[in-house]
Specification:
By secondary structure, the chain is an alpha/beta fold.
């Protein structure tokens, strides 16, 4: 019997709804079956990751993390998520992408960087480089 692979999961964290919608559409244009959650700030992102690990014993495949947000900024949220994944001994940690207009490289603990309003090809390339798609 063939065991189905788990769905590709992504968390998009940005305080601006148009940005969340843009990235949702971009991911779905590459991986139509992706399951996408959204968070409006870093604190909500950390909470969603914690809940997902508790419920499924795994984290998201991909986290898109804005830099400047209210409540908890992206760099701090990223560090907290990486620490949480290690503490909970998550087998495969999330690929966390800094998504920003004010940064031009990933901040501490982030795995890579994309500019805001990135083109489909930019995201596709990153997903390939990091082995999330072939």
């Amino acid at each position: 019997m063939h065991k189905p692979s788990p769905p590709f999961t992504a968390l998009i964290t940005d305080d601006m709804e148009p940005n969340r919608l843009y990235m949702t559409d971009l991911i779905l244009s590459i991986i139509p079956s992706a399951v996408i959650d959204v968070a409006m700030d870093g604190a909500e992102a950390v909470s969603k990751v914690s809940d997902k690990i508790e419920q499924t014993c795994s984290s998201y495949n991909l986290i898109i993390m804005d830099y400047q947000m209210p409540v908890l900024d992206g760099a701090t949220a990223t560090s907290q998520i990486k620490r949480l994944e290690k503490q909970q001994q998550v087998r495969v940690q999330s690929l966390i992408i800094t998504w920003s207009t004010s940064k031009s490289k990933p901040y501490k603990d982030a795995d890579d960087w994309l500019p805001k309003q990135a083109a489909k090809q930019d995201l596709l390339s990153l997903l390939r480089i990091h082995g999330l798609i072939s």
